[in-house]
Input
Amino acid sequence: MNFSRSVIAEAWARLPEYLGQHVLISICAIALGFLIGLPLAVGVSRRTRLRGPAIGIASIVQTIPGLALLALFYPLLLALSALTQHLFGFGFRALGFLPTLLALTLYSILPVLQNTVTALAGIDPAIKTAAQGVGMMPRQSLFLVELPLAMPMIMAGLRTASVWVIGAATLSTPVGQTSLGNYIFTGLQTENWVFVLFGCIAAALLALLVDRFLALAESGFVNHSRARLISAALGLLLIVGASLMPLLASEGGTITIGTKSFEEQYILGALISDRLEKAGFKTVQRDGLGSAVIFHALEAGDVDVYVDYTGTLWTTQMKRSDVPGRKAVLTKLATWLHDERHAGDLGSLGFENAYAFAMRRDRAKALGIETLADLAAYAPRLKIGGDYEIFSRPEWRAVVKTYGLNFALQRQYQANFMYSAVVDGDIDVISAFSSDGRIAKYDLKLLGDPKQALPPYDAVLLISPKHAHDEKLLAALRPLIGTIDLGTMQRANLMVDRADDKRTPEQAAAWLSQNLKH
Amino acid sequence: MLRGHMGSMIAFDDVSVSYPGTKTPAVRNLNLNIPEGAFFVLIGESGSGKTTALHLINRLLEPDRGRVLIDGEDAAALDPVKLRRGMGLIFQAIGLFPHLTVAQNIGITPKLLGWSTLQIAARTDELLELVRLPPNQFRDRFPAALSGGQKQRVGLARALAARPKVMLMDEPFGALDPVTRDDLSAEYRDIHEKLGLTTVLVTHDMTEAFLLADQVAVMRDGRIVQTGGPADLLAAPADDFVRALIENPRRRARRLAEAMRAVSAP
Output
């Protein structure tokens, strides 16, 4: 199949960057976790009263789901960065490497801590007496006897930590850290199962290899085999070196393109990337970022270019609840971005991807529902499904308030499953995006918004403050403005969404590039 | 008890010590003089305080009251680490470092004292010869590959490595089979003589005490019951407890002699 072959080629092409980033973040987190866990374990072993609390706290950290831990560090660092900016005049990047490093480090502490404490407590008292008896000072006893004897178990802890961290690092994609998780998140979103599988296998193989080499080191300590220790160290160095090489080769003057986690964003990301590469820029893509995260990333310069939608920024960033009309929102947003955030706004790509609500056409007809206003009377008997964001967004509150909606049940779905659910009749109404190709495909009825509770959602091209006046960059992207109409975008989206004759976002972007209106 | 300590290598001056959380002291008002060059055996049942007394000598334990004098100096005023490096310690569990080779185990104290690698290697081989383990065979073995007797020989070599004047031995031969035990204790007695050591040995085995000791101190409930040469104890046991203690090896010796006669009779 043409599709799967090109998908595998595409997956291979991304491997150097994803793997390199994955190894880099993992190795930093494991090393940091080890450097914290080991002295901590030695410390609490000498003060037995602290042993329980220390292991308790580390265990609690372990029970926090990985994704949540990663997500928590982002606002925390953002606030901290704002504080240091205020106090000392410098801030730092709250996205990507740092929150991931901190979260993964916390994860890697427990196994090292627990194993070291257990190993030190389990050392034969006769050996400790002998250490004292031959005239060792406590520090000498620790370094010459106790730690070497604990080494096999410490290595076992390090192995556990490494496997956990390499696995959990795949969850760092949504906070903007590139990793092998990019395959999984992108693949899940575009139903590209080859990508998902590729990411899983790559992460598992990496974890397995590292685990094997650490096991070799462990057995080296047990059997006093210098040869094993050396081959283990060489093996690990080889993995790390080979993974990091491509990273060292690249970098410097690259433009980071951000995308949110749905097909249209991946396609537009690929389109922008193609444009910039042709104009001589190097680009990297940060895929699958959350709505709020991506805008902060742009402000911070972690992301240089991305496509957002006017209504999203209007309600969530500008905190506006009025709806003055499509043109007014576009101009007011551009002014706000320029004046308040010093970011660039090149303007609308030409289509709107609005938040909307949709039903199966036959069901809507049977109930006589044309608009959200008609829905109010039936809502208490209907079930609504939404994506991960809609129910916590101001737009939803506005719709509920304006039309007095009160559904029997509301449920969150991954986009693909949401469409299946409404087509199969499991739910009655779904939140949808007007540019989604699946609306036409499944013949869904978009419900009208007569009271204008929802703002317009023109797709706009945003530039980070750092590059807001980079004329070369702006000139490369400006030709895209006003060239994509809704029908074209829907067809491109459908190419990626559909199950048969499925295309990659890159292929859809290439098609889109041929079909821009001039 | 004697108050003067002239000529004593080790002296206990009215020493008492309790373990934390216990009411009765492990050692009570202990007074002892151990002359330089003596082979001194502390004997008693388990819990009598003999190991506690031994640990007070190299400051693995500190006295609650009283003083321990080493070569006339208050041990409390000496650096405990230096003190321990100048004394050899051997105990039943041996406590060889499992991650180090035989040579590294033996060389540990000299290494801590900063000897050169060459000096340590020479000393290690010399000691392996002394304890009758051929250096070429044993130098690079790990403790896991040694028999019980071989381990205790290495333990002995390790204790002797830095040329200590005092050897502290806590039931050193207790875990060995009888033949090995006899061989090793006889060999150690020779080493003691040859090197001019002062040895303090703790045991509950009266036979061992009689065979090795110049002087014996019998301990019970943290106190000294009787001190003297083996002959003094045999001639005039201080009380029924001491009598019972020495009666045991005597009875065994008699029964053994009878059994031997029965076998050799025509």
